[in-house]
Design a protein that fits this description.
This protein is mostly helical. Helix content is 67%, strand content 4%. The protein is built from 4 helices and 2 strands. α3 (44-58) crosses α4. The protein is flat, with a radius of gyration of 22 Å.
Length: 107
């Protein structure tokens, strides 16, 4: 499976030090962005698109009244986040059932 192209090379062709350096530079950039801009403004378009996806899900043809579309979209959004919470709890429970390595097993 080919990796992402980064400066003429794939992600898989970079060594660990270069991946770590890029990750650190990315974190620095993110901190600079959040230090100089309101995150509510920088993510406003993305949040609007995400929220409108629920309206398109419940009314793809745009036939419902705005109030009914909003009501159904709110339920679709709640169902989405409830499903994520369910899957998260299920994953945590599965991790809890796995045997944990003892300290001596790690050496």
């Amino acid at each position: 499976m080919p990796g992402r192209q980064l400066e003429g090379r794939t992600h898989l062709e970079m060594d660990e030090a270069e991946r770590a350096s890029r990750a650190l530079r990315g974190r620095i950039g993110a901190h600079r962005l959040h230090a100089t801009h309101d995150p509510r403004e920088t993510t406003k378009a993305a949040r609007a698109a995400f929220m409108s996806s629920f309206e398109r899900e419940v009314d793809p043809d745009g036939l419902l009244e705005p109030e009914e579309r909003a009501r159904r979209a709110a339920h679709a959004r709640a169902a989405h986040f409830a499903r994520l919470a369910y899957l998260s709890a299920k994953a945590r429970a599965a991790r809890g059932r796995r045997p944990r390595p003892r300290y001596g097993d790690l050496m």
